[in-house]
């Protein structure tokens, strides 16, 4: 048994002794093996997640879009993003305080998770170049 398996086993034994006492099912060993497999799968999923995880790149002072909350009762033509808002403070590696007022609560800022923020790119310097295309007749 590897380190993950031993930790899972000791955790299971503590739960079993604390909650179940001496009562056990007939397929007790099979249940324990299934639990150990699930703990190993969780460890593998974490490794895969960590390989693709990209930390947020927002800094204080950056302009961001705020993703709207989707609800089936909302109108279909609502904008998917609101903003731009300015990041005022980084609360944690994934939470940011932005300058979005909340009139119903009387607050001038809002704490948002980084998964709901998108970088804002200003229109200055954005130019659409049109080219003439000749179509063969």
TrEMBL record:
Highest taxon listed in the record's lineage: Eukaryota
| InterPro entries, per the entry | SH3_Tf2-1
Which Pfam families does this UniProt record tie to the protein?
SH3_Tf2-1 (PF24626)
Q: Which residues form the Tf2-1-like SH3-like domain?
A: 61-120
Q: What is this protein called?
A: K02A2.6-like
> What organism is this sequence from?
Cordylochernes scorpioides
């Amino acid at each position: 048994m590897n380190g993950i398996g031993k930790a899972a086993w000791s955790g299971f034994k503590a739960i079993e002794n604390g909650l179940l006492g001496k009562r056990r099912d007939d397929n007790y060993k099979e249940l324990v093996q299934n639990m150990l497999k699930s703990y190993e799968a969780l460890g593998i999923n974490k490794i895969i997640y960590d390989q693709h995880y990209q930390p947020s790149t927002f800094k204080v002072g950056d302009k961001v879009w705020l993703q709207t909350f989707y609800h089936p009762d909302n109108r279909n033509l609502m904008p998917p993003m609101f903003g731009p808002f300015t990041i005022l403070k980084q609360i944690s590696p994934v939470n940011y305080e932005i300058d979005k007022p909340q009139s119903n609560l009387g607050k001038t800022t809002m704490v948002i998770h980084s998964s709901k923020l998108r970088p804002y790119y200003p229109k200055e310097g954005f130019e659409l170049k049109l080219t003439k295309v000749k179509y063969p007749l």
